[in-house]
Amino acid sequence: MTSKLQIGRLIKWNDERGFGFIQGNPSQPQVFIHISALKKTKRRPKVGDEIQYSITHKKGKIRACDASILGATSQNTPPRSPAPLRHSQSKRPPVPWLQVALVSIVPLLGSLQLLTHSGIFAPLIVYPLMSLVTFKLYAEDKSRAQQKQWRIPENILHLSELAGGWLGGIIAQRRLRHKSVKRSYQITFWGIVILHQAIGLGVIVLFLQGQL
């Protein structure tokens, strides 16, 4: 069962995890809100927004549902034309080909070993294919961030990198200047890169020892 519509202010918001808390009546407890409860809005919420919502109870907890950001509904907010890029902004940094070549050596040699000695060609297809997919995910996520739309979850980006698209992630981070500063993201990202390096090195060593 849900209550009638109420209006409160968003006092806490974790944009990465997509949840926060609304303060309605000061005498009442804060109300939990997940981003999936927000409807008819073209941008992500931020602290200070006035939220119109209903209250529902789920697993004994008070939650907001059927919520919207006042003044930011899709009916009332016409799409804005993107601001023209300055000449300096339109230039993208070059692809770091030297770095790409260095981190590609070990996985490439491992993949060639698998192809030459075992006839397994999957890595030589998966790496470039998933790198392309990952680059497109980065580009889409940055576009959404610039337009203040729903973002692609970081775990989706990391899964794509783990599936072999980490090389596309390196290129996208440098080329698009996206996800290259956030420390927690970089720790996970480079952990994935090191994992693939270790796998490639392990394959090479096993072949040299004649165990594959």
Brief account:
With 212 residues, the chain is of the alpha+beta class.
Description:
This protein is of the alpha+beta class. The chain folds into two domains: 64 residues, Nucleic acid-binding proteins (OB fold (Dihydrolipoamide Acetyltransferase, E2P)); 117 residues, no CATH class. The protein contains five helices and five strands; from the N terminus they run E-E-E-E-E-H-H-H-H-H. A hairpin with a 7-residue loop joins strand 2 and strand 3. The longest helix has 26 residues. The radius of gyration is 23 Å and the shape is elongated.
Summing up helix and strand content along with how strands pair, one would put the structural category as alpha+beta
Runs in which pLDDT lies below 50 for 5 or more consecutive residues are 76-83
Mean pLDDT: 85
Our count of helices gives 5
Major beta sheet, specifics?
5 strands, antiparallel
- Structurally, the number of domains stands at 2
Adjacency order of strands in the biggest sheet:
3-2-1-4-5
- Beta-strand content: 15-25%
Task: Determine Rg (CA atoms, Å).
Answer: 23 Å
CA distance, first residue to last residue: 62 Å
Shape: elongated
- Multimeric state: single chain
Helix % is 40-55%
Following the backbone from N to C, one meets helices and strands in this order, namely EEEEEHHHHH
Q: State the total count of DSSP E strands.
A: 5
